[in-house]
Amino acid sequence: MNKPSSLETCLSPWAQAIDSAPQILVAVSGGMDSLLLLTLLGEQIDPQRIKAIHINHDLSANADQWQDLVADYCDQIGVSFYAEKVTVTASGDGIEAAAREARYAVFESMLQPGGLLFLAHHADDQVETVLYRLLRGAGPKGLAGMPALRPLGKGTLIRPFLDCRKSDLKREAQGRDLKWVEDESNVEDRFDRNYLRNRVIPVLSARWPEYAQSIIRSTALSRQADQLSKILAIEDMAALDSRAERAGWSISIEAIKSLSILRQKNILRHWSEIHHLPAPASTIIDEILSSVIDARCDACPQVVWQSQCWTRFYGRLYLLKSTSAAFQSQPVPVWKMKKPLTLADGSCLTVTSCVGKGLAATIDCVEIRYRQGGERCKPTDRAHSTTLKKLLQEYQLPPWLRDRVPLLYVKDKLVAVGDLWVCEGWSVGAGEKGLEIKWQVDSM
């Protein structure tokens, strides 16, 4: 019979989501918090529905022992176990941030559509996070702390312990006689979070015993402020002629410049989040305003940050998912057009049957090439042939896509350029069956 838990109510808000979830993952480091979370979940639902995920960062001489401890415990309680060793390379944000990035990359890759991932962050972790972000100059979103629930990959991340103090979790774990590991690096004050935990927070606690409750209240107020600013951003976006583009999204520069600087910044902060991308830092927002929005009309400046790029073209501000790798054209000698074709840059070509437009239906396969320079062609109903360079400008294909647009050839004859136009002699007339080409570019 399962032992009753004073923390069972922590999982109650998620009971319905748990019952209907096709996948339940639990991140288990081997520490007290995550082992307790795994235990509670295993008591309340069929353990066979649960998979424990252990990320071996290989940063400690004891890392393999921690992995073995988790594996043995999972075997003991009948839970499926998965471990993955990751390579952690310190970046400008330090080893802690690099480890987190590697860890979450694995979580995201494993989540199935509708799957749930449970993490054991608690109220003390929340306090450390808020203090750390405060010292780094965070705004309302950062000071709102870690959310109890958020999307991650194809699934959802849940933190059921966020309202629980670590002392309460420890009493529960000791009452269950759980055995866990202690990360020896937790005593090393060279890590920022450890310094806060070991040196700063004890001083705060001595002076203000209720410091944690006060900080948690501030996170709630910050979360409300962030939600309100997002609502305003969405309302403002409605007046900016927002469009989905081949490689991202765009808004009217003239329209956003008609707003106050404060509202412009608010839009830029939330625009990325609306499309499930990280919100840019305030310094990046200032750079977008000065270098892109206020640039000359004929300029095409770029601000690149993490996975995103902001640029302008034909009076519109673009938000693109950037790529660090230069495009490498890879011609396709034969594309049998009945099946979709994924190209080297991740874009996709598809064909559907239509009437009175498109490429002649008698064509069943083409060759895919890319710009080399000097190409000429004559779109249907044009009086003269023109260079491909001029045509791409005329059709307002953004510069960052011009080397990527697929050129369709039949026996060395250019018959179509992406889904922009069909060349004369290869299109269909009124009432005739044709092939409509679609070049789908969701992100760069």
Structure description:
This protein is an alpha+beta fold and 444 residues long. It has three domains: 8-218, HUPs (Rossmann fold), CATH 3.40.50; 239-321, Uridine Diphospho-n-acetylenolpyruvylglucosamine Reductase, domain 3; 332-440, no CATH class. It is 36% helix and 22% strand. The protein is built from 13 helices and 22 strands. The chain has a six-stranded mixed sheet, sandwiched between helices. Helix 2 (32-44) crosses helix 7 and helix 11 packs across helix 12. Mean pLDDT is 91; it is low at 1-5.
What's the short story on this structure?
With 444 residues, the chain is α+β, with helices and mostly antiparallel strands. The protein has 13 helices and 22 strands.
- The CATH topology label of the largest domain is Rossmann fold
Tally of alpha and pi helices = 13
Helix content: 25-40%
Q: What profile does the largest beta sheet have?
A: 6 strands, mixed
Number of strands: 22
What's the CATH H-level superfamily name of the largest domain?
HUPs
For this entry, give a set of tags.
444 residues; alpha+beta; Rossmann fold; Uridine Diphospho-n-acetylenolpyruvylglucosamine Reductase, domain 3; 6-stranded mixed sheet; 5-stranded antiparallel sheet; 13 helices; 36% helix
Write the layout of secondary structure elements.
Elements: H1 15-20, E1 24-27, H2 32-44, E2 50-56, H3 63-77, E3 80-85, H4 95-110, E4 116-118, H5 123-135, H6 140-143, E5 149-152, E6 155-158, H7 166-175, H8 192-207, H9 211-237, E7 243-245, E8 248-252, H10 253-257, H11 261-274, H12 282-293, E9 302-305, E10 308-313, E11 316-321, E12 332-336, E13 341-342, E14 348-355, E15 359-360, E16 365-369, E17 376-377, E18 386-387, H13 388-394, E19 407-410, E20 413-417, E21 421-422, E22 433-440
Parallel strand pairs: 1-2, 1-4, 2-3, 4-6
Antiparallel strand pairs: 5-6, 7-8, 8-11, 9-10, 10-11, 12-16, 13-14, 14-22, 15-22, 16-19, 17-18, 19-20, 20-21
Helix pairs in contact: 2-7, 5-8, 5-9, 9-11, 11-12
